[in-house]
Design a protein that fits this description.
2 domains, 15 helices
């Protein structure tokens, strides 16, 4: 199945594969943050819960992909000058700008529609998420500090969306954990881009030239400290219920190793691609697996 797109006045075929590539399915894993609060509440196996969460994840995947397509369409000229982004479907010419915009809007509407099937509250959260990501693409990504805060807030909205979809409480310490952890990831991406692009960094992303030397490293420290504090508060408080028998408290140690190890990767300037950074470090993978296992045992087994 093909469509016809217009690129620099030339009519050429544009395959569905190009739209899929521009939707960045590899980054859909971020939307698994949606399940964090329902899982932590011990309600994952409640009747109807898996289905509602699956629809919530699908809604966020659609909206995220829609904003990726719009962002690529609007930044096409800048992306063509970037050593990595120039291979993207729109920048390389495999997908036309107008096609990308149409597909992006369609995915945004699809995501809101799926969320509405779960409930109006989730639809509102998804609309807010879409509005924030669109504002980020148009304006917020050019404002220092605001750019990484906006990225972190997107993750908090994902987690809040999962809570709303599952009908569980908005757990403040867990939401703070997600927010500060996402702040660390966003700052790490900026630091990695600075090192990757070198003297050309500001040319490719204007905000990179606005951060004073050392300031991003300070923000990374804030992200690590905030995530560790918030998670520790949640785990210890949950263990205080005398139900989990210490397993949640035990999960604090591997969580700390994971956060600090990722901070180490960030400090080395190797986190411009967060997914690759997380999957490429064996110590980080082991720490995450151990922390998740301990937490799940504490919630569902003890």
């Amino acid at each position: 199945m093909t469509a016809i797109s217009e690129h620099r006045g030339v009519v050429r075929p544009s395959s569905v594969a190009a739209v899929v590539a521009a939707a960045r399915p590899r980054q859909w894993v971020k939307n698994l943050v949606v399940v964090v609060l329902p899982v932590a509440a011990g309600d994952l196996t409640a009747p109807g819960m898996p289905g509602r969460l699956a629809m919530a994840v699908a809604a966020f995947c659609c909206v995220a992909s829609g904003t990726y397509l719009l962002n690529d369409a609007w930044d096409v000229e800048e992306d063509r000058l970037h050593p990595r982004k120039r291979s993207r479907a729109v920048a390389s010419g495999r997908l036309g700008v107008l096609e990308a915009e149409c597909a992006g809007v369609a995915l945004l509407l699809c995501g809101v529609g799926i969320a509405a099937l779960v409930g109006w509250a989730l639809a509102l959260v998804v609309v807010g998420y879409g509005a924030l990501t669109t504002a980020y693409s148009v304006w917020l990504k050019h404002e220092p500090v605001v750019d990484v805060i906006a990225l972190a807030t997107c993750f908090v909205l994902r987690a809040a969306g999962g809570a709303v979809a599952g009908g569980v409480a908005l757990d403040a310490p867990l939401l703070a954990t997600v927010g500060f952890g996402a702040l660390l990831v966003g700052v790490g991406k900026r630091l990695g881009e600075q090192q990757e692009l070198g003297a050309e960094a500001e040319r490719h992303r204007r905000v990179l030239g606005m951060y004073p030397p050392g300031f991003l490293a300070q923000l990374a420290t804030v992200g690590m400290a905030g995530a560790l504090t918030a998670y520790g508060l949640w785990a210890v408080a949950a263990d205080g219920s005398a139900v989990h028998h210490g397993w949640l408290s035990a999960s604090v140690l591997p969580f700390m190793v994971a956060v600090l190890r990722y901070g180490y990767v960030v400090a080395r300037g190797e986190a411009s691609d967060p997914e690759a950074a997380m999957l490429g470090d064996p110590v980080l993978r082991i720490a995450v697996a151990a922390g998740v296992l301990a937490a799940l045992v504490g919630i569902y087994v003890s």
